[in-house]
Every structure is written in structure tokens, then in C-alpha cells.
Design goal:
Layout (H helix, E strand, L loop, with lengths): L28 E4 L5 H9 L5 H12 L3 H9 L4 E4 L4 H10 L5 E7 L9 H6 L7 H5 L8 H7 L16 E5 L1 H12 L7 E10 L4 E6 L1
Parallel strand pairs: 3-6
Antiparallel strand pairs: 1-4, 1-5, 2-4, 3-5
């Protein structure tokens, strides 16, 4: 089997960083550019429990490049950006905001998070991806995890669902968030949504989340 490596050069001013938590402030907005739930959909498909049209829609999303979305994020002064892959929405969000110098509290608007058609039905049928339980450990950082699980039992778990070729989570200043979202939607990312907000930061060594719906 052949091996290969890809190298490249980027100008320093064009680099987009995942963890700029020292720059975050209350009001900064979280945007996601693609739906989530591909992990549980693929698991459900292996059990013949998913409609084929839902798989086709998921594959279309997976084939959509994140390149243009990243350029839009840069244009709108992104303070942090990451793709959503194996650690799921919550796992990658934790990586974005963890800091050794401050508490970062985040409100997540669960009902605004775009979810692939059919994914919630898979959860309802007790389908889950093989990595789900490992990812769900991050729920210890969610202040109201049990409440969210009880009130949104078929959507809350999808925040921890591992993704394949997922979209981007982008953190932008409150002042540019609406324009950023509108440009994303008009540039080939119609499922983009504003899904959360930095609510506070305090001096400590912790991070925490609240699920809002």
C-alpha cells in the first residue's frame, strides 16, 4: 500500500485557530454550518432502519466542502473555528473553549441545532454509534444534562454523535454574527444556524454549558 503526505504554506494572517478562548467574551455567537447526526444515521442504515432519501441528503452534506465557509468565517472576524468530526458537536466545542485561565460558560440553543432528517428517529429506536458512549462523557460539563435528556431525549444525545465530514463550528463577535450567518446561507450552506452564545467568563479553571430550549 502506497503512502503519501500533503504539505502546504499559509500566510500567518490567514490562519484560523481552534482555541482562542482568551479572546472570547459574553455575547459572542456560535454558528454551525451543517446538520449533525450522521453517525447515528449510518448506524441505523446498517440495521436497515433509515429511509434511503435521508441517507442521500446526508451524503450530499458530507460532500459539501468547508472551504468557502472558512473564508466567510475569516471575513467576519472569527474568534475560533473547528470542523465537527469524531468527537461530535459537544466534544469539538469543548476543545474550542477550554482554557487554563478562565471559566467560559456557553448557552447552547438545542432546538436551533440542525439535525439530519431521520437521526432523531434512530435515537428513538435506541440506535447509537459505536463512539457515542465515549463522547457522552463530556456531558459532565453540562449543568443541566439530565434535564435536557429528560425533555429532549431524541435530540440532546445527537450533540454527542460522532460525525463524518461534518460542518464547521464558528465563534464570531455578536456584532458580525447575523451578517456571517446570512452570508453562509447564501453561499451554499442553507442549514447554517446560530446555535449558542458565550454567556460569561470568570476567573477559574473550569468550563460549563447550559442547554436552552
Amino acid at each position: 500500500m502506497g503512502r503519501f503526505a500533503i504539505t502546504g504554506v499559509v500566510r500567518k494572517e490567514e490562519i484560523l485557530y481552534k482555541n482562542n478562548s482568551h479572546l472570547l467574551k459574553p455575547g459572542d455567537s456560535l454558528i454551525i454550518t451543517k446538520p449533525i447526526g450522521s453517525g447515528v444515521l449510518l448506524a441505523g442504515n446498517m440495521r436497515n432502519q433509515v429511509d434511503g432519501t435521508n441517507i442521500e441528503r446526508m451524503l450530499e452534506s458530507m460532500l459539501l466542502s468547508n472551504k468557502k465557509a472558512a473564508s466567510i468565517a475569516r471575513k467576519h472576524e472569527s474568534k475560533g473555528i473547528t470542523d465537527v468530526t469524531g468527537f461530535g458537536f459537544m466534544g469539538h466545542l469543548v476543545e474550542m473553549i477550554k482554557s487554563s485561565t478562565s471559566i467560559i460558560s456557553v448557552d447552547i440553543y438545542l432546538d436551533e441545532v440542525p439535525i439530519f432528517e431521520g437521526a432523531s428517529e434512530c435515537v428513538r429506536n435506541d440506535v447509537s454509534s459505536s463512539l457515542f458512549l465515549d463522547n457522552f462523557r463530556v456531558s459532565r460539563l453540562v449543568n443541566n444534562s439530565q434535564f435536557a435528556l429528560e425533555n429532549r431525549p431524541h435530540s440532546y444525545p445527537i450533540l454527542f454523535d460522532p460525525q463524518t465530514s461534518g460542518g464547521l463550528i464558528i465563534i464570531v463577535p455578536q456584532e458580525t454574527a447575523v451578517d456571517c450567518l446570512e452570508e453562509l446561507k447564501g453561499s451554499g450552506y442553507p442549514d447554517s444556524r446560530m446555535v449558542g452564545q458565550i454567556s460569561k467568563r470568570l476567573t477559574n479553571l473550569e468550563i460549563d454549558f447550559d442547554i436552552i430550549f
